[in-house]
Amino acid sequence: MHRAWILFFLIEEGFALAQRTKDSPGDPGGQSPGQNDCGTWVRNINGGVFMSPNYPNTYPPNKECVYILEALPRQRIQLAFDKNYYIEPSFQCRFDHIEIRDGPFGFSPIIDRFCGGKNPGLVTSTGRFMWIKFTSDEELEGLGFRIQYTFVADPDFHLHVGGLLNPIPDCQFEIGGWDGIIRSSQVEEEERVKPGDALDCIWTIRAPPQSKIYLRFMDYQMEHSNECKKNFVAVYDGSSAIENLKAKFCSTVANDLMLDNGVGVIRMWADEKSRLSRFRMLFTSYIDPPCTANTFFCHSNMCINNTLVCNGIQNCVYPWDENHCKEKRSKGLFHQITKTHGTVIGVSSGIVLVLLIISILVQMKQPRKKGGGSATWCLQQGWIPGGLRPAPLRALLSPRQGDVLRPWRSFRGVGQLPQGASLLHHVALCPRAPLWLPGLRSHRRRRRWRREHEAQQNYAELHGTVLPQRLLQAPSHEDLQLHVHLQEELLRLQAALTDS
């Protein structure tokens, strides 16, 4: 059983070791100072040795050297200073000093800053990375230092039941090209940090050669505004060293930034109670004018690649790259509308078409009223007992009202009344129905007959010529044939009204 555990551990270490290059002065995990500029740096699988420039002689003025140490997974780094150690002393080590941080970046938690002649002793990291920087000013140089570092086992390392290793926290991303979007939601999507844990993630941007970087926030919100200890977004220009900090945002606003280098580092920090903080940032690689043939001038001292013009995203500081793209935008908008709403428009049009067809079919199947006859003229057929001799109705009308009788002079019926019966006057039986005679198909004739019908209504209301209900009989269903002039019928109607 113990052999199996040991074998499993060796396999895991072997995979981690395979990711490193062979032992040499090259850099396995970041920056590596050269032997001539920043002293000798010797490394092996168990650790190594590095020293200040010219050691054991006096180090030169105006020097800055960065050493990034990386151990294998599940290991820590331990530093041991040589006894021959001396750096120019100063208050709080403001001048010459050596700074050690617990992590791979210049903003990682600081362990301490050392200077003077007192040996710092052993310094141990809490993880597998350590960031070290040596700085000297222009005056008062010293002997310098020699540091031996070793990789020691992480005391927090253990195996779960079943032989599964604890996951190694890793929240670093790299992105490059002419443009791209950096977003905090990538952390949750790739499960780089467990829910409920503090978030400390790094995005490294690498622009094409000879290019610089323009950053624009597209979305930015800190859950605890103006509390930088709880949440912030920091931007570094060139490297993650603390002196390269370009801006740090923790309030309600984040401004655009222009980096002077082709490498940018974005860091987001959010503690356990600030996990709702978020940001989304667009980076654009650009070069300084004069612009080349394959670049576009943004009128703001920057030239972007031609592929970024009319791409639907504002890559310039001002939207010069998207101002003359109306045709492309209109086509894109039509395509978007067709794709998004085409189904809705098609279904709606289909419903309207079906309803229209149903309406036409219903109208076609409805029984039509037969034209001609007294019904077409809105005349009710009744009969008056024979022998009634009505007085002339024309005598009761004024010359202007006499025009009411004009349309009836050419009237010819098509049916036949029972013997002794007569066709009743339209006004008597249909006082509210519009008058409609065959052949009146023009709009002008309709209006004329409508005026004459209204005159008939007015006369009936003034003179009370409506027949009593007792004289009415059910209409005849036989064919009618009228050969009597309307004047005779009106006279007989008047006589019937008088006798009643």
From TrEMBL:
Keyword Protein biosynthesis belongs to the record: no
Limits of the CUB domain: 38-152, 171-286
CDD domains in the record: CUB, LDLa
UniProt cross-references to InterPro entries, sorted A to Z: CUB_dom (IPR000859), LDL_receptor-like_sf (IPR036055), LDLR_class-A_CS (IPR023415), LDrepeatLR_classA_rpt (IPR002172), Sperma_CUB_dom_sf (IPR035914)
Top-level division of the source organism's lineage: Eukaryota
Gene3D superfamilies found in the cross-reference section: Low-density Lipoprotein Receptor, Spermadhesin, CUB domain
Disulfide cross-links: C38-C65, C291-C303, C298-C316, C310-C325
GO CC terms of this entry: postsynaptic density
Gene Ontology terms, MF aspect: ionotropic glutamate receptor binding
PROSITE patterns registered for this protein in UniProt: CUB, LDLRA_1, LDLRA_2
Transmembrane segment boundaries: 343-362
Keywords carried by this UniProt record: Disulfide bond, Membrane, Repeat, Signal, Transmembrane, Transmembrane helix
Record Pfam families: CUB, Ldl_recept_a
Protein's recorded name: Neuropilin and tolloid like 2
